[in-house]
Amino acid sequence: MQNRREFFNSLLPLGDRKKEKFKPILRPPYHKDISLFLSQCPLCQTQACVTDCEEEIIVIQADKTPTLNFKDKGCTFCEACAKACELNVLDIDSGQEQINANFYIDSKRCIAHFGTICSACLEPCIDDAIIFNGMFNPVIDDNRCTGCGFCMSRCPSGAIFYKALD
Ligand code: SF4
Ligand code: SF4
Ligand code: SF4
User: Fold this and answer.
1) In the chain, which stretches have pLDDT less than 50?
2) What's the pTM?
3) How many domains does the chain have?
4) Residue 39 domain-assigned (yes or no)
């Protein structure tokens, strides 16, 4: 039996239905063709990207494709996952040295936005992508952010989020 969400989704035009089903996933860097995660990774015997990532941020999902976990750490762009990937899903020559996601600071959660002095997110951001507009208004500069994720775990109020784009 269809649930309410599925029922209303079935009333949408086909293009909108496809959009509804497509949920972007945070993927490791160094990929050129996003479709290879679904076509190749389930065939992978080694999952070497996981074992070779010294930051231990790559995890395999139920569909046997990799995603990233920024709960404690971030990506150093060390290339180890790309060097380890035997099926060329990840490839150093892809030129994709960034995580395809938009990071943002939720001003409703960020304590600096409420007047508390806090700059915990600044230090881990080696790309200088966190800009303070005055003392109490940090924002993330999309043009500088590589999506490394290191700022997330440092924020004491859990105010940093991302929207995956792939
Ligand atoms: S090593 Fe490559 S093919 Fe295997 S799971 Fe990781 S990205 Fe996919
Ligand atoms: S580039 Fe390095 S730190 Fe980043 S996901 Fe790959 S192995 Fe992990
Ligand atoms: S703002 Fe972007 S580049 Fe800076 S630490 Fe956060 S995710 Fe990394």
Assistant:
1) 1-12, 14-20
2) 0.86
3) 2
4) yes
